[in-house]
Amino acid sequence: MRAKELFSPTLREVPAEAEVVSHQLLLRAGFIRRTAAGVYTYLPLAIRVLKKIEQIVREEMDHQGGQEIMMPIIQPAELWQESGRWDVYGPELFRLKDRHDRDFALGPTHEEVITTLVRGEVNSYKQMPLLLYQIQNKYRDERRPRFGLLRGREFIMKDLYSFDRDAAGLEVSYRKMHEAYTSIFKRCGLLFRPVEADSGAIGGSDTHEFMVLADSGEAIVLYCNNQACGYAANNEKATLPAEENISGETLKPLIRAATPGCRTVEEVAQFLRISPQTIIKTILYETEKEVVAALVRGDREINEIKLLNTLGCLRLELAGAKTVQQITGAAVGFAGPVGLKGCTIVADPEVLAMVNAVTGSNTDDTHCLNVNPTRDFEVNITKDIRMVQAGEPCPHCGSQLLEAKGIEVGQIFKLGDKYSKALGATYLDESGHSLPIIMGCYGIGVSRTMAAAIEQNHDNNGIIWPAAIAPFQVVVIPVSTKDEKQVALARELYQRLLEAGIETVIDDRPERAGVKFKDADLIGYPLRITIGSKAVSENRVELQPRRTGEVTLAPTQNLEKIVLEMLTAL
Ligand code: ATP
Ligand code: MG
């Protein structure tokens, strides 16, 4: 491809709307343009990258026995009503009506459509396992479609669904996908980690997220320092070893102390000159069913996802000042479990191990001292409800947990019979018994993976594509387009590289060399070949990998071979 003809309009300025690096660079380097909030047009360079990621995904899906299909984007509301998700999916679902006033949705995911398909076509155990997938646009009316392709309202996803006769079959399918995802992100040249995750609203039990590690990631990953252990989890999910009460301290009598105006853990700790670790933090929540007091140690944060799962509720919100006053009889900041009525008390196990702790007293400007769980208050539910932090012990081996930030590029779920039961997808086993099909679902954000690759691989000058997913592998730049010999040599080498199957761009635009170098860095070609006067006189060209910037000289004779070798190492 000649740079002159390539439709990749670059921008000198960073567009104001772009907050994250991948968004800025995709716009600046001419990969995408915004059509509406969270909706983008992919230009030729982006299409090349997306096709490469898709091809890797396709090969790995096929390798595990996946068969590609294509389901409709437009989905009839009846399917969603049957599964019960029409009402619970909420405003994220793009809804529309046809000319007959019938309801439809733009597919955010395809469990309903595929389960209905399989319900009609699969009726015997002999037809399973079955792995079906597609790669297409998905639609989610995200609350905050910021961050460019990382969170679009229209985005490209690969979604595979597995159908098995039982849990053992699902386990096999799940492992296959885990393996496929590992190969995919490895082949894409990305640094990533599979982590245990929360199954959230989609339901099901086991689930892993595949996280591309990048400082700009929204998710926090906790992983074990001990490589042989390998434990890694999203911090929404991470757990801890069971607590033991090993304190030998004697229980002191409970007393009350004035703490005027001290509402937060920090204020109370400072005022009483104690450590936050000795305070029990009491936070009131409201669910659709009840009011809940959640207790964690003062230096900990409540993990609302764990709390939501513990309570089995759909909605969980911080209680308002009015509710707090009603339940505790005090203003916000003075709630405590002693004598607390009219709400369910959920405590983290760590709280139960505390001795002579400090809590709110349910009276304004007062706290209780020497509070002892069980002696002074009862707990309704004891469950891990707190955020795990780096530095704490690994639940598997006890080594230290470390922390990293990640971008979720894929997730795999064991769905079990959630959808097959709701939609009546059953099969007959050997003895003629009708049983629900056991399902799994497995997604990869293809467009998000492109953006995540940039978040992980860039510098101040632009993108640094891993060679496997770069839009082109090589750019050939004649330093002076006025020098006919340089241009002729550049064209010859360009031609030879193309014939060797290397995706190459020749930048023979009549621009200054500096401009071309800048654009090459911005677009992120893995390898730059510069053709200056030496190249002509000595038959030697400069090779410069984008990532290292280290220049080496290479003879022009067998350049193809040298370039291929360099590219496989990039
Ligand atoms: P998130 O928590 O980031 O909103 P999700 O858990 O809802 O994502 P899944 O339903 O697991 O997403 O979808 C599978 C994959 O699709 C995700 O791992 C992600 O890579 C991609 N994806 C999901 N939502 C978006 C989006 N709005 N824009 C781009 N990619 C997305
Ligand atoms: Mg997910």
Describe the structure.
With 570 residues, the protein is of the alpha+beta class. It folds into three domains: 21-239 and 402-455, Bira Bifunctional Protein, Domain 2 (BirA Bifunctional Protein, domain 2, 2-Layer Sandwich), CATH 3.30.930; 255-382, YbaK protein; 472-569, Rossmann fold (3-Layer(aba) Sandwich), CATH 3.40.50.800. It is built from 16 helices and 31 strands. Strands 3, 7, 8, 9, 10, 11, 12, 21 and 24 form a nine-stranded mixed sheet that branches. The protein is globular and about 95 Å long. The two termini are 22 Å apart. The model has no long low-confidence stretch (mean pLDDT 94). The site of adenosine-5'-triphosphate (ATP) has 15 residues, from β8, β21, β24 and α12.
